[in-house]
Amino acid sequence: MDESQVSVPLPVRLRFGHAAVQRVADQVGVDLLHIKGASVDPSLRPGAYSGSDVDVLVRPSGVVVLDRALRAHGWQLYSTFEHGSPFGHAQTYLHPAWGYIDIHRYFPGIRLDPDGAFDVFWADRHRIEIAGVGCDVPSVTAQAVLLVLNAARSAKGARVDVVTVWHDADDARRDEMLQLVGRLHADVAFAAAAGGLERYRNDREYRLWKVVSGGGSRAAEWWARIRAAPDTRAALRIVMRAPLVNVDHLAHRLGRTPTRGDIVVEFLRRPVFAVVEAVRSAIRRVGPRRVVR
Amino acid sequence: MGGYRPGEWVGVLEHEDVLYAAILPDGPIAILDGIAGLIWIEACEGPAGTLVERIATATGAEPQSIRAHVESFVDDLVRRRLLVAGEG
């Protein structure tokens, strides 16, 4: 018997990871749904790809309790909701045996409030067994919608899921997916991956999903986020956050906890990056000679 | 005498003909490759009293030559709470 974690294949660690987080959730009475990766219905992932981490969608009211329980069982916080992603939707933990897990408090692209969206998914859940542990997953239709919404945040080349779950789907499945997309108020993000985004040209989120799904400078993405904010207060929050240093990312890049000096240097470095990006963007728009002049 | 069964908090997976067992949610993962996987399966599927003989039959070994190894291995799994003795 060998207990070297190095020699345990990633798909094995991830399946155990799903089972382990379910056990923790059961212990503390938190509702969660397994999404993406090893939990996806085989009909949606013929290639049996199990991903690189474990993803779960947690009932928002249970996030604090689950966070505490995970830490008590050896998961270390890797990146926070605030700094993990510009959407602020997920928090990442690392466990020595199971690897990475992403705790989602909502799913980007869904505009229905997080509690309401979780209830929609929860109402049609079913249970699958992973490593002998019963794990709740959304309906197959909901899984398909989540895969498309997830692809909307990927580079264009990484959209195999969209082909399988949307373009290759029969009419009945497509109708079910579109109905669910409507209930979740996720039309714009869904269109960014599945096609037809231009129909939402006048929507406040149009530019955001255009940039996120098609690529663009960081500055363009921040502007799009500000324009997509539902109200002035949310827009101001994004404006205030934009120039802040992402301490989580900086720590991972440095391989240690950043000192105050590191953070200051990084803060001063970022505007330089923004200027470089702006120049690159101008070169792309008008050609290099104009900029050289 | 009954056989064994996985502990209450133990998850078991099979991947590319190798068995893996882990205590959830804390770990670690035990790799039960080859003969180790065979012993696990036989321990869980038949009576403990004939376990060594069944392993010997499956592998073509003499029971007396493997008895100490098999029993020590199963004891280790029980000590680690990966296996528990079934009802007898």
What does this structure look like?
The complex is a heterodimer of chains A (293) and B (88). Chain A has 293 residues and is of the alpha+beta class. Chain A has a domain at 1-138: Beta Polymerase, domain 2. In chain A, 53% of the residues lie in helices and 12% in strands. Chain A has helices at residues 10-28, 63-72, 81-84, 114-123, 140-151, 160-167, 171-184, 187-194, 206-214, 218-228, 232-241, 247-254, 260-286, 288-292, and strands at residues 32-35, 54-58, 76-79, 90-95, 99-104, 126-130, 133-137. Chain A has a five-stranded mixed β-sheet, with helices on both faces. In chain A, strands 6-7 form a two-stranded antiparallel sheet. Chain A starts with 9 loop residues before the first helix and ends with a helix. Chain B is of the alpha+beta class. Chain B has one domain (7-82). Helix content of chain B is 42%, strand content 25%. Chain B is built from three helices and five strands, in the order E-E-E-E-H-H-H-E. Chain B has helices at 35-45, 51-59, 63-79, and strands at residues 4-6, 10-15, 18-23, 29-32, 83-85. In chain B, strand 3 and strand 4 (29-32) form a beta hairpin. The longest helix of chain B has 17 residues, at 63-79. The mean pLDDT of chain B is 93. Chains A and B meet through helix 1 of A and strand 2, strand 4 and helix 3 of B.
